[in-house]
């Protein structure tokens, strides 16, 4: 797991190796163990290494193929490299020189060309230069676990694992992209192929890009799908347990210590129960002082059932929270306003003191139906046409106006408000998770966002739902797999962990598990009445011997008490940035609109915690990077 960066002048101009090195230097946190660069004519590649496999100098990158034709810089982990090595030995006479998985990438490319990308099983992004064809190949894993940002500036293509790696290459101060800022305000993140800076984008999950002097071409090699041909619960449970145990075992491959991130919920508990008994894998979990967020009793019960050691991280509402909030903003380059990143960031920092690799349960909700929004979407499809949108909109506004500000984990007023708001929208599934409501945009948007008032900020998310096949549950699953998961959850996971040089692996997002989930009919997740969540995973967890209170428990995760933090450790920052210094948002946002949202929230009139968190994220990034 590492950081990569580079540049390619498609007009043949000589590449600046020193610039490539400076780009990679901004990624030192992703690869604290070593760094390297390589350049030739119009191409320069750079790398920061986190040593996980083959800790010797043989694993250092940029990596050249044995014949010298191919150079690669790679961020990620392959789980089928040994199988591919054997296949390459039979088909192409391949003889490995190292034990690093990196070596498989150029060997597979030389044997199978661009099709090699689809043969790789793991989490990855990489850049491969074919010296003979003078051709650059950029690739990203199936679901977008590992990031890759791109900036096309004239004839030059810049790329890096994070936005901060590309910033040194820009000749002028970066500028914010109005439509993407509007999208972030609406949902807390830009779309999975976009960024909030003009001229910058992300390579789409499950795709690769070819760049040469003739141009740039992008191709998709994998997308989530649903066939739903498995309908028998016993067949599904047995198939899942067998495959999941294999995947978890495969993902333990490492030359350094491995641990597992454990909440009190189903997903991480399944990983724990699937761990090989002969492996001593410690569990890492968070304790909160707030009873509404603490789930340590569930974790203790699970650890006892699995016979595993727990190492606790205490999550206190202390003075360090403000510094950690700033660190999260920088880690994500201002691209994510998900408050749970703060807990993940603090957890990963302490986990890294013990291990360099950890397993996480991310992705199970999106592939096995873990969110209540799926039932809401089913109801909206069924009854939405009968409910006048104007009436639903007025109801949502009324609920929000009287709901006040609660310190509960998920207040009932919040659930009622979101349900009513979704019914008021043309695309309910995209609206359930909204941050900024339509009714608030006019008062908040500044001159630079004026054109966005006429556009639906949820349109890109909604288009994923509309383009998907199947019933409302299937469409909701596919929309979340292709949009919400890579744009929010996987950004949080990657940046929170790699900020500390911690490699986090995701068994539920192994292609074998994703495709098995795609074969399961939705009643296996939701029950015939549609009222359950992750039903097949609960059955699997019960079969593996987990405590019943976890098997039947509600969804849990690494949440933080946002309203308590805004009243406590983050109050000074919010008072300054969202009130006294609110002009920092101009011309994107109206300073008076920013102040009103903050004052309404802190005075208890309206619960605006999600919008406030987004404004704090955006504002701190604007300040730190001097954006406009």
End-to-end gap: 33 Å
What is the overall silhouette?
A: globular
CATH superfamily of the domain at 2-220: Aminohydrolase, N-terminal nucleophile (Ntn) domain
Regions with little confidence, pLDDT below 50 for 5+ residues: none
The level-1 CATH class of the domain at 2-220: Alpha Beta
Rounded mean pLDDT score: 93
* Fraction of residues in helix: 40-55%
Side-by-side strand order of the widest sheet: 2-3-1-9-8-10
The number of helices is 27
Largest sheet: 6 strands, antiparallel
User: What is the SS-derived class?
Assistant: alpha+beta
Radius of gyration, rounded? 24 Å
* CATH T-level fold name of the domain at 2-220: Glutamine Phosphoribosylpyrophosphate, subunit 1, domain 1
Residue fraction in strands: 5-15%
Explain this structure.
The two termini are 33 Å apart. Strand 6 (122-130) and strand 7 (135-140) form a beta hairpin. This protein is of the alpha+beta class. The chain is 43% helix and 15% strand. Among the domains are: 2-220, Aminohydrolase, N-terminal nucleophile (Ntn) domain (Glutamine Phosphoribosylpyrophosphate, subunit 1, domain 1); 233-369 and 488-551, 3-Layer(aba) Sandwich (Rossmann fold). The protein is built from 27 helices and 17 strands. Helix 8 (266-274) packs parallel to helix 22 and helix 18 packs across helix 19. The chain has a six-stranded antiparallel β-sheet with strand order 2-3-1-9-8-10. Strands 4-5-6-7-11-12 form a six-stranded antiparallel β-sheet. Strands 15-14-13-16-17 form a five-stranded parallel β-sheet, sandwiched between helices. It is globular.
């Amino acid at each position: 797991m590492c950081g990569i960066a580079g540049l390619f002048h498609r007009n043949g101009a000589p590449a600046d190796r020193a610039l490539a090195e400076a780009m990679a230097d901004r990624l030192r946190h992703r690869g604290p163990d070593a760094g390297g660069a390589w350049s030739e004519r119009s191409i320069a590649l750079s790398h920061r290494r986190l040593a996980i496999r083959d800790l010797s100098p043989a694993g250092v990158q940029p990596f050249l193929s044995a014949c010298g034709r191919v150079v690669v810089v790679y961020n990620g982990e392959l789980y089928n490299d040994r199988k591919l090595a054997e296949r390459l030995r039979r088909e192409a006479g391949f003889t490995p020189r190292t034990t690093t998985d990196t070596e498989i990438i150029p060997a597979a490319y030389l044997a199978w060309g661009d099709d090699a990308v689809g043969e790789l099983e793991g989490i990855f992004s990489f850049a491969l230069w074919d010296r003979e064809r003078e051709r650059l190949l950029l690739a990203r894993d199936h679901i977008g676990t590992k990031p890759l940002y791109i900036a096309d500036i004239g004839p030059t293509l810049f790329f890096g694992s994070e936005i901060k790696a590309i910033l040194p290459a820009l000749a002028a101060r970066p500028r914010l992209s109005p439509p993407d800022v509007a999208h972030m305000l609406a949902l807390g993140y830009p779309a999975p192929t976009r960024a909030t800076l003009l001229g910058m984008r992300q390579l789409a999950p499950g795709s690769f890009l070819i760049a040469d002097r003739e141009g740039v071409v992008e191709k998709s090699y994998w997308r989530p799908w649903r066939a739903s041909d498995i309908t028998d619960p016993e067949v599904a449970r047995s198939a899942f347990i067998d495959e999941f145990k294999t995947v978890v075992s495969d993902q333990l491959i490492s030359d350094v210590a491995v641990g597992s991130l454990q909440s009190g919920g189903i997903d991480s508990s399944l990983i724990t129960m699937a761990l090989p008994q002969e492996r001593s894998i410690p569990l890492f979990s968070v304790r909160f002082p707030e009873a509404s967020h603490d789930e340590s009793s569930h974790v203790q019960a699970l650890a006892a059932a699995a016979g595993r050691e727990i190492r606790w991280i205490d999550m206190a509402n202390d003075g360090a929270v403000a510094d950690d909030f700033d660190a999260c903003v920088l880690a994500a380059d201002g691209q994510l306003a998900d408050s749970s990143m703060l807990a993940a960031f603090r957890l990963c920092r302490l986990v890294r003191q013990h291990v360099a690799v950890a397993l996480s349960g991310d992705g199970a909700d999106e592939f096995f139906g873990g969110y209540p929004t799926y039932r809401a979407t089913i109801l909206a499809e069924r009854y939405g046409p009968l409910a006048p949108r104007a009436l639903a909109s007025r109801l949502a506004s009324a609920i929000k106006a009287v709901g006040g500000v609660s310190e509960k984990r998920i207040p009932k007023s919040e659930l009622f408000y979101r349900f009513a708001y979704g019914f008021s929208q043309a695309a309910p599934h995209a609206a359930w998770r909204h941050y900024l409501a339509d009714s608030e945009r006019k008062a908040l948007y500044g001159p630079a966002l004026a054109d966005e008032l006429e556009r639906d900020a949820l349109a890109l998310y909604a288009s994923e739902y509309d383009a998907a096949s199947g019933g409302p549950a299937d469409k909701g699953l596919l929309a979340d797999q292709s949009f919400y998961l890579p744009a929010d959850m996987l950004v949080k996971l990657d940046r929170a962990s790699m900020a500390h040089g911690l490699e986090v692996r995701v068994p539920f997002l192994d292609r074998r598990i994703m495709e098995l989930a795609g074969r399961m009919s939705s009643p296996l997740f939701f029950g015939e009445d549609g009222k359950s969540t992750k039903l097949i995973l609960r059955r699997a967890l019960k079969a593996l011997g987990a405590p019943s209170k976890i098997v039947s428990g509600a969804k849990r995760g690494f949440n933080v008490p946002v309203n308590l933090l805004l009243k406590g450790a983050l109050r000074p920052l919010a008072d300054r940035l969202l009130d006294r210094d609110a002009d920092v948002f101009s011309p994107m946002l109206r300073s008076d609109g920013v102040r009103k949202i903050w004052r309404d929230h802190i005075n208890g009139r309206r619960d605006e915690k999600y919008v406030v968190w987004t404004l704090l994220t955006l504002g701190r990034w604007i300040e730190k990077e001097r954006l406009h």
